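Lab notebook, design round three. We kept the backbone fixed and only want residue identities now. Task for the bench partner: fill in a sequence for the structure below.
Input structure tokens:
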């Protein structure tokens, strides 16, 4: 198993962001983690990345219980802008190379080209769409076993969304990498997901294989998600 949650509860103060979650992610699959705002998607990814720890229960990644050290094996695209504004794109790429032994410079160069990013530009000069693209370059250039994308489409236009999906399909190694995409924009990732997990108020309320959803139950992911949420009165 690539990732295992064993009865994980995560509290921030008295509030439970995740409540007794048990969940498994298999290697080499693309997962969609779907849920409305505040449902616990980011918390789930942060637990895998070792940025927060369970209040109770355990999270195991690649057979090891998660500590900060896991960041060496987990590539994490956050929803936050973490860029050093005065850096150029090239400098940022070189900075990542020094931070992560699995960072592949050739892959980064190819991704920059595909995404039509100018290496000489300062990060503060980039449009929001190009910042989104750069974040993806930095994440996908890593040959990490686990790739976590938190809202990779938020605030980006249709063309940028398209180029993100294309680069995912091109640069993910489907034999080696497990990818989890947290989003509430289901349409975008519908064609590329293997498995879909619905999360609501800190609980996993559904987990399905996308192909069997379509073929056996005749549901699109969006239809399935709406009906799963509907049963919760949402
Ligand atoms: N650092 C924090 N301190 C206090 N409460 C937090 C913190 N981070 C998250 N929470 C709370 O935990 C719950 C789950 O948040 P989380 O960010 O995991 O949800 P999400 O599904 O990613 O939402 P969004 O789509 O809005 O990013 C929310 O109620 C949120 O307010």
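Proposed sequence:
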């Amino acid at each position: 198993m690539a990732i295992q949650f064993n009865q994980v509860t995560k509290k921030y103060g008295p509030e439970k962001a995740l409540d007794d979650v048990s969940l498994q992610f298999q290697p080499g699959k693309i997962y969609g983690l779907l849920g409305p705002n505040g449902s616990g998607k980011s918390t789930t990814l942060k637990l895998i990345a070792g940025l927060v720890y369970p209040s109770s229960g355990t999270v195991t990644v690649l057979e090891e219980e998660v500590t900060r050290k896991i960041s060496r094996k987990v590539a994490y695209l956050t929803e936050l802008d973490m860029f050093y504004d005065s850096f150029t794109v090239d400098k940022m790429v070189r900075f990542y190379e020094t931070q992560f032994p699995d960072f592949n410079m050739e892959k980064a160069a190819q991704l920059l080209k595909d995404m039509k990013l100018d290496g000489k530009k300062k990060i503060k000069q980039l449009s929001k769409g190009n910042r989104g693209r750069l974040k993806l370059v930095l994440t996908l250039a890593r040959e990490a076993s686990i790739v976590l994308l938190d809202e990779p489409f938020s605030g980006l236009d249709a063309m940028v969304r398209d180029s993100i999906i294309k680069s995912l399909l091109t640069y993910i190694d489907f034999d080696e990498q497990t990818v989890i995409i947290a989003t509430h924009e289901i349409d975008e990732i519908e064609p590329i997901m293997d498995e879909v997990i619905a999360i609501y108020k800190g609980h996993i309320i559904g987990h399905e294989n996308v192909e069997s959803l379509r073929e056996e139950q005749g549901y699109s992911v969006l239809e399935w998600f709406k009906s799963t949420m509907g049963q919760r009165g949402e």
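Keep this in mind before ordering anything: The longest helix spans residues 158-171.
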